[in-house]
Amino acid sequence: MTLEVVIVNYNVKYFLRQCLASVFGSERRLADGSELGLEVWVVDNDSVDGSVEMVRRDFPQVHLIENRENVGFARANNQALELILNSESRNSNSDSQIQNSKFKVQNSELLLLLNSESRNSNSDSQIQNSKFKVQNSELLLLLNPDTIVERDTFVRCADFIAGHPDCGGLCVKMVDGEGRYLRESKRGFPTPEASFYKVSGLVHLFPRSRRVAAYYMGHIGEDEEAEVDIMCGAYLMFRREVYEKIGGLDETYFMYGEDVDFSWRIVLAGYRNYYLPTTRIVHYKGESTRKGSISYVYNFYNAMSIFVRKYYGGRGGRMFSWLLEMAIWTRAMLAGVVRVGKRLAVPLIDFTVAVGGFVLLKHLWATLGRGDAGYYPPQYTLFVIPLYVLILMLCSWLSGGYDRPVRLGRIVRGVGVGVVLLLAFYSLLDEGQRYSRMLLLMGSVWTLLSMLLVRLGLSAAGVSGYALRARKRGRTLIVGSEGEAARVAELCREAGIPAEHLRSDSSFHAGRLQDLIRIEHVEEVVFCGADVDLQRIIALMSELHTTGVVYKIAPAEGDYIIGSGGILSRGDLYLDDLDTLGTGASRRSKRLFDIGAATFLLVFAPVLVWLQHDKRRFFKHCLQVLSGRLTWVGYTGREGVFSPADLAPEANAEMQNRLMLRYMHRYRVMTDAAILLRRWRFI
Fold first, then answer.
1. pLDDT of residue 333
2. What is the pLDDT of residue 434?
């Protein structure tokens, strides 16, 4: 029996490396004494973090497909599945080999080139390491890159499927990076009723109900073997004959929903899907795609909507379909409103408190200083005061006053700049429009004080991101031998994390670790992968998930530590957050540069356009940048007119990837300016 593992990767190099290490470290001996064959395919969706180079260097046995664009999860999996099945059908002799074959993808169409005359080293997408032994794969597995499998996961699953002829697909128990059980390990068919309870949130109130929690099959225990409807795409194993009968993933789904659709098609084809809890995997949820973004909300609920239209439309369930789709998009809009509301809540509080205080000061100043409560005209209250406050808040925003974690100095600096600008603007007004310089100063001081008081209140209420006092950090415990622990401790120290060391020995067990966590006030546990087996790590994480401790793994090779919160590395990926494009300040500076440069180019377009290589594209790109659809210099996840690679157009792919990483993690506006100045004739 042979298992073909397909992993789709997108910019999660370190997670992918750990995943592949666990895959190739798995057991192969089946219950009947035979050997489980293993072939691994990695489909990379145009990553720029060095994933491709890492796979080539550290896992040469992997069949690597390089896409030059992000073709989505479903299409990327189908690329590998098509190759697996097509290559086997070309040769009925399972012991034969395809020598020196190459594959390429052009315009997202996969072409198989078996003769040397057809080779193309400059193809847009290539499959590396394509010299492989063709075997009759009986099992196929779709596996997420941000997962770790137990040593016996594959053989347990293969033995289970072999003993259940009706099994078409199989999923396993999943835990997150802190050892907590993930409910999506098993799911029921998303009927209108089950989906309503899911999108309405009622499922959280009755997690064990057969009816209300049907979406997660809550009536089935997490350690209970059972037949299920839907399997999670993070670990989805199925028979080869299933693929031959129902085909691959539905590419209508770009992300999310394709596993639901595929699982249900297996059931419709007459097979059964099973949940196997006797083996586990760790799934670091959301590393490839962050769930906090508006795009996640859209993609997730759009996938649900596609599923509803596909399986409920046209068969007497149009009313159910319409009602459910309304519920889905209502929930999606509410999720979007909540996100926007969270972003605007503090600015709205600032504006309301500042304007209210400003108006009160105006009334007091008019009454006490001018002797006339109606001294200032109504337009001063309705328009001028709100404008003053908005300008002060805008300056604070530009200074980073609304970034989290909060820094009071940024607010003071921003409001101070705003006061200077307001006074300068005030001096340019006509005499009749100069209401009161003193009132302007008093109102500005109040605006600053009110913003600081709001932050103090949020800090006292414990609102995340607004803590004004640094929380005392608990201890980090390293579990491993002296040598490995010293290496990992050095990594922690470089990251500014003090770490204690616990030597691993034969007497080490969960109870002892739990006592240490409690007595020593441990907050994080780092396992040394060279000393503590992955099987043991996963078991400990599951046993101790109630401690609230964060668990991380330091692989035997590589200067990085992996965990659900992200990566710690002494390389490019562990850098000061203030220097990354992930911070609000950097994104804001980049956006302001985009707007300023686009405005400048459009103002001087009558002259500059005649020096352009493509005059029509000049206006198109300027307007797209101005509207926010493009940025002048693109980066991962953001399309741009130019690229950081334009700084070194002759550099090889690895160097260009490094340029992209450095650009993203050491962003400077001057870098954008330099690239734009160098390439301005090609706008």
1. 74
2. 78
Q: Distance between CA 167 and CA 499 in Å, rounded?
A: 47
Taking alpha carbons only, the member of 43, 50, 42, 66 closest to residue 124 is 66
Give alpha helix (H) positions in 508-583.
510-519, 534-543
Q: Which residue has the tokens 């009161």?
A: 436
Phi and psi of 649, rounded to 5°? Answer: -65, -20
Distance between CA 325 and CA 305 in Å, rounded? 6
* CA end-to-end distance (rounded Å), the chain: 55
pLDDT of 254? 60
In 447-532, the DSSP E strands lie at 475-480, 499-503, 522-528
Beta bridge partners of 560: 569
Strands 139-143 vs 235-239: parallel, antiparallel or unpaired: antiparallel
Amino acid 62: pLDDT: 95
Per-residue DSSP letter, 181 = B
> How many whole angstroms separate alpha carbon 131 and alpha carbon 137?
16
CA distance 381 to 370: 16
Dihedral over alpha carbons 107, 109, 115, 116 (to 10 degrees): 20
Residue written as token pair 């200067």: 559
Interhelix angle 318-364/294-312, nearest 10 degrees: 160
* Cβ-contact 123, 110 below 8 angstroms: no
Q: Which parts of the chain sit beneath pLDDT 50?
A: 90-136, 287-293, 316, 506, 569-579
In this prediction, residue 317 carries a pLDDT of: 53
Q: What is the pLDDT of residue 191?
A: 73
Q: How many residues does the chain have?
A: 683
Q: Are 297 and 339 in contact (CB under 8 A)?
A: yes
Angle (CA) 665 667 668, round 5° = 160
Nearest to 644 by CA among 631, 660, 666, 655: 660
In eight-state DSSP terms, residue 473 is: P
Which amino acid is residue 383, in one-letter code?
F
Nearest-5° Cα angle at 632, 631 to 637: 45
pLDDT at 121: 35
- Which amino acid is it at 333? M
Rg (CA), the chain: 29
Q: Tokens 């497909």 identify what position?
A: 65
Q: 245-254 burial by CB neighbour count: b if 16+ within 10 A, else e? A: ebebbbbebb
Chain centroid offset of residue 512 CA: 35
How far is Cα 466 from Cα 459, in angstroms, rounded to an integer? 5
Task: Report whether 516 contacts 502 (CB < 8 A).
Answer: yes
Indicate the Cα dihedral angle 515, 516, 520, 521, nearest 10°.
-70
